[in-house]
Amino acid sequence: MSLTAERSTPAPAPAERPHDGPVAWITTTDHKKLGVMYCVTAFAFFLIGGALAGAMRAELADTGGQLIGPQAYNTLFTVHGIIMIFLFVAPFGVGLANYLVPLQIGAPDMAFPRVNAMGYWFFAGGGLLVLLSSFASDAGGVATGWYLYPPLSGPRYSPGVGPDLLILGLALVAISTVMSGVNVITTTFLMRAPGMTMWRLPVFTWNVVVTAILGLVAFPPAVAAFVLLLFDRRLGGQAFDPLGGGDPIVYQHLFWFLGHPEVYILILPFFGVITETIPVFSRKPLFGYTGFILATLAIGALSTGVWAHHMFTTGVVDNPFFSAMTFTIAVPTGVKFFNWIGTMWGGKLAFRVPMLFSIGFLLNFLIGGVTGVMLASAPLDFQLADSYFLVSHFHYTMMGGSVFGIFAAIYFWWPKAFGYRLSERLGRSVFVLMFVGFNLTFWPQFVVGLRGMPRRIVDYAPGLGWDTPNLVSSLGVVVLSAGVVLFLVDAFTSRRRRTPAGDDPWGGFSLEWATTSPPPENNFSSLPRIRSERPAFDMRHPEFTPGSSVTTAEEPS
Amino acid sequence: MRIALRYLWLYSAFGLVLGSVYFALTQEWVGAVALWFLGMMPLIVAVWWARHGPSSAVHAADDPDGDPSASAGESLGSFPTATAWPLFLVLGVIVTGASLVYGLLLLPAGAALLVWSIVGLARESRG
């Protein structure tokens, strides 16, 4: 029985799109190239942000001033935060969405390819301005912390053009996010292949749709805050200046109305990633598909109502309301853990590199999540706010979660994107180095946080019990960095070796594994029939297709 | 499509209800307005979609028994060729924005670049 049907789509002028060379990449509107460009650019920002983190840890390895002065240190943590949040993790998710959504739903491209290209250039241009604001400013780099809170970010305390360039850069990145969000939502709602109902959508696509909606909701208020701040700085506005009748707390509300959904914008795509990899390497369908999707929708909705738990200590927000909302959002997140564990339970686990990173994600994110619930309690938050405990919690969710998800995605979809594999042997070493290095770096930060070490300090006195954990934490960065360097070696050597991967090296489930590696222009020459959320699996194993007369008790391993 | 529309209604209701509860508890305007807008935005799309969108007709993608051959020969829309206008447009925005920081002398150059690229995009030329 054939499961494929020819889809005679008119080929949209492939000759007019140049395929190779820098001009072809710069002028492309192809979602796959743009997806790769997003991911490569974001990874370059990751290397820059990582280098800044390394410099900070070098300074903190011992008491006394070693390398960096206080003002430069302030710039380092400010720019590190902004790069990692706005220029690395979030855009990497956008890049994956760009590459994968049309492939996973059986569409030839995104709904608005030119807008898609524009979104990439807004991101790249915004990123460039952010870098300029840090290193090419007349009055030193921006040193306000990534929140840009006024009055510290106002003209009185942060003169010079650095904050202005940063605000412009962030505004461009926000526009980029909105553009890609509109594209993802429209493409998913309107360009699915026949049979690809919403309840058959791959979980990655579901997660990036919710992420896109969050982006549309969360970024405009922050852009409004940034523009008002720019007016205060450049045009004599007083929106956030109490001396002129303004209110800096309004800025905090507007910023965190972005800032907390942003956390979910950073993590949801990678929930999607590991929910693609875990079933494939457990040789089982996802346990509780519907529950998982409903949990994602619940997270998307609830994440818009928790913003002011970042403002507990201001004393002007309703702490019980935001505490309750924050506790509530832990419930759907916990549901997802049941989905992941239930999927692995009884499965034929294959510990390939993407699966290792996915399991690393689970372990790290669990710690980040549990400490998040601790911080949701306002009395505890009053004790731990602005301590290294908070830094560690945040990194366990964002780095231990999202970045491990990013590496799972890279190892999982690299063969699809480029047609050749990364090294399994090197990949395992990358995972071990990163997992050990990450936990060496950030676990001691919980310890020093509980011992009272505040964040954002360039030096500390000896004898407070902070010395050894800080040294271990700094050594951890060395191990972690070795993992990242080894990954670059892996990428480079694999590119030279180019071991063919085949179209479906993992026995994948979703539709992108039903086309060639790399996929052709407009993605599919023919589409399989879609009868479940695992169309590629159904195509390879018609005996398991719903409604098929051929069934067996066990799935193939 | 019905699922997507239902999601928009639900999301809208969530924003409006949560905004109202939040305002009743806190009398804090910034968050309340943000939450009400959170409800209004999907409401606008949902109302338009319910009245004019393809929700009433069965979209091939929403047919569980839909077959790829159902869309064989169907035009999937036109896909643009390579273009440099998005890059020029963003350069125009950057230069225009930089005029606010570095001086209004940059404004004419930024505005010219913006207009040029918008015209190029509208003409759908390659640039």
What do these coordinates show?
The complex is a heterodimer of chains A (557) and B (127). Chain A has 557 residues and is mostly helical. Chain A has a single domain, classed as Up-down Bundle (Cytochrome C Oxidase, Chain A), CATH 1.20.210.10. Helix content of chain A is 64%, strand content 1%. Chain A has 15 helices and 2 strands. Chain A has helices at 21-26, 31-60, 70-105, 113-135, 162-190, 203-234, 248-282, 289-302, 319-344, 353-376, 378-384, 388-418, 424-450, 467-497, 535-540, and strands at 4-6, 526-528. A two-stranded antiparallel sheet of chain A has the order 1-2. In chain A, helix 4 (113-135) packs antiparallel against helix 5, helix 5 (162-190) packs antiparallel against helix 6 (203-234) and helix 10 (353-376) runs antiparallel to helix 12. The radius of gyration of chain A is 24 Å and the shape is globular. The relative contact order of chain A is 0.11. Mean pLDDT of chain A is 91; it is low at 1-18 and 549-554. The mean pLDDT of chain B is 85. Chain B folds into 2 domains: 2-59; 85-123. Chain B has helices at 2-26, 29-52, 85-102, 106-123. Chain B is flat and about 50 Å long. Chain B is mainly alpha-helical and 127 residues long. Chains A and B meet through strand 1, helix 4, helix 5, helix 6 and helix 7 of A and helix 1, helix 2 and helix 3 of B.
Oligomer: heterodimer
Which structural class do you get from the secondary structure elements of chain A? mainly alpha
Q: Give the integer mean of the pLDDT values of chain B.
A: 85
- How far apart the termini of chain A lie comes to 22 Å
CATH class value of chain A: Mainly Alpha
**How many individual domains of chain B?**
2
Structural class of chain B: mainly alpha
Instruction: Give me the CATH superfamily of chain A.
Output: Cytochrome c oxidase-like, subunit I domain
Roughly how much helix do the residues of chain B carry, as a percent range? 55-70%
Give Rg of chain A in angstroms: 24 Å
The name of the CATH architecture of chain A is Up-down Bundle
The strands making up the biggest β-sheet of chain A line up spatially as 1-2
Q: Ranges of chain A with pLDDT <50 over ≥5 residues?
A: 1-18, 549-554
Shape of chain B: flat
End-to-end separation of chain B? 37 Å
